[in-house]
Amino acid sequence: MRNTVLHFPDGFRWGAATAAHQIEGNNYANDWWPREWAEGTSIVEPSGDACDSFHRYREDMQCLVDAGLDTYRFSIEWSRIEPEEGFVSKAGVAHYRRMVETALELGITPMVTLMHFTVPRWFADEGMWRSPKAADRFARFTELALPILGDDVEWVCTINEPNIAAMIAGGEDPANLVAYGLPAPDLHVADTLLESHHRAREILAGVGGIRSGWTVATQDFQPEPGCEDVAHEYGHQRDDWYLEAARGDDWVGVQAYTRTIIGPDGPRPVPEGVETTLTGWEYYPLALEHGVRSAWEKTQGVPVFVTENGIATADDARRVDYTEAALAGLHAAIADGVRVEGYLHWSLLDNYEWASGYRPTFGLIEVDKDTFERRPKPSLGWLGSVARANGLTPRA
């Protein structure tokens, strides 16, 4: 008996995602770079040259399109565009515009993220998201980005994972940002991020054809019996509030990897004996379906875009297993009426994973750290075959 093909909607987007600081290399003008080099830092290693994608972005996109994928999410580095307050680098703007044009030339739909965690040092020195000028600063940066977007970029993410950004910007040690036991976000910073998001959306609304939203790291908080109230209180300020705030947006991004069990005293560590990934997270592909359903419910019907989903593993066959199960769950949500615009895998490349350095490998493509040679993994070809068919045939 032949396996049933799980067909995805016509026009469904398939692709992969990256972030500027994690792949470009030498972003020394932003706030994260000095953290990497600080004496006594908890960050495992500095980003350094990263994947040299600042120069090799065409090669990255070519790998993506050759595999059969059609959408590429990348971020623009604010500190390359405005390295000093008020100074706008024409070269920086032109670089990112060339990235957009390269994507379009190759037949790729670009999704541009304005802020993926990092900000210029001068803005960080001013207080970053605690500064009374923060929303004005981000609005101005959005205006500076308009020539990059032109009139041919449809998908724009204003702020990546504002729930995580509120924790980082609130001064928490980035090494503490684990899948369970997340520190409480600075609620004032959260409010400022939301104001900045709204200001950016107002500016982007003046450009015809742009659909804007922000992305949320959905944590899939699952209560133990009798702990529903604890889970709601714990999860609302770390997850649900940001989804609720996306009501009325053009779309909302879901970034899902694992789950968090909530007991009477809060989050539980990953149980002993369960499979974990290179980040120490529980192997739990159903997190994607749960995150997408939660976003659809909490936003009251805002279209969902899976902007990140993947697994840190050295076993590429296990990456395919995880992604297959995640996509099957995603299809179930779509079959139940959830509107999902597309699926972007994290990440296109094995890249710099913030405080964890280069050890956690999420990529569909291996990168040689000495030569920067790109080596596509079997998982890239597998995901491309799913994209070409716009359907998933479960293997068992």
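That was protein one. Protein two is written in the same sequence-then-structure order:
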Amino acid sequence: MRIGVKGFQGARLTQARAARAMTQTALAKASGISSPSISKWEKGDQMPEFAALEKVAAVLSLPTTWFLTPVPELGNRTFFFRSNASLAAAGRAIAKTRLEWLAEISLCIQEWVGWPEVKIPARLSRKDALTITDAEIENLAMDCRKLWKLGNGPIQHVMNTVEAAGIIITREALGYIKMDGVSSWFDADQRPYMFISADKTSAVRNRFDVAHELAHILMHSELKQEDEELHHNELERQAHLFASAFLLPAESIAHSLSYPTLDTLLTLKQKWKVSIGALIMRAKSLDLIDDAYATRLWKNYSARGWRKGEPLDDILPSETPYLMPMGVKMLLDQGGFSKPILIEKLGLSAADIEQLCSLPEGFLSSEPAKVIPLNSPVFRGTPKSSMLPDSPSKVVPLNQRKSN
């Protein structure tokens, strides 16, 4: 009886298929391995032979060693998706898996690099989250600004401001234009994580996405999955309101939004770095315009063709994360790692690490990864870190960046 690759983790294969949006049937067709065999591998009823595992790993663009590493216990908190209701389940599965992989990389990097302490207002209990009022949401947004010393003016870099509070963010394209973002807390390090989609190139849209996911982290992290499913539309509305209040404080923006023209809103967009659509909705939520005036603004908005793309969308620069790329570069520059050894330690392919850590394409893959044979001690239960030459152990502190 052929035993196959000892230590193979079926859950890794399930996870990898989700990340690549592949069914068992599609993977079978692409790899030449039968669908029943793939099913048995995932269930743990059978282990693949190395040649078969190589074929599957190649199709999934992952190292064979990735399938020998157990999936870590990250917790079972609810995931909150900012996405169109018609988004396919595959799109959500990709985003969820990518966020989990981001957390895995982060946990590994935290062995040497100290992320900023999580510094946010107290999270709401499940009861409070289900009963919160709009006025309380406005106050929570202002509490966040006060805690982070942002004042009441425009936030220059929303993404870096949130990262400075200890929230880990990745931004990458998924290929699903209807997906905007997903967030969740992970119990493994008691830290919130965000995935922001780069499929839409509008910088102001991404800024709003970050503020929206921040709302879920602050208000909804104690809710159960059934709460999210039952109250999805209301939770999304609350997150929209928080994002608007966080980016556009009422006391600072109210005067400018009292019956504005579209040209006035365009000027405000340049100053506050939020979309004209968001400004119209903010004016309506603050009762600074009535229904009839809002309708007129939306009709003129459509007449100018702005629903397909607003002015300045191609001019305002997109924000990018800084914590993950800085952590990787610190390990390379100060932690004693070479690029091949770091790729080996993190486990994923160089391309996946580059994307999740917001690194330039080819940053890691410009150097070939070190190939470790399956009979190496690293695959017989020896921790990977012990295989590293002069294994670094010193934690490199990462100072918070002031982003306001």
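Confidence is low (pLDDT under 50) at residues 368-393, 399-404. Keep this in mind for the problem set.
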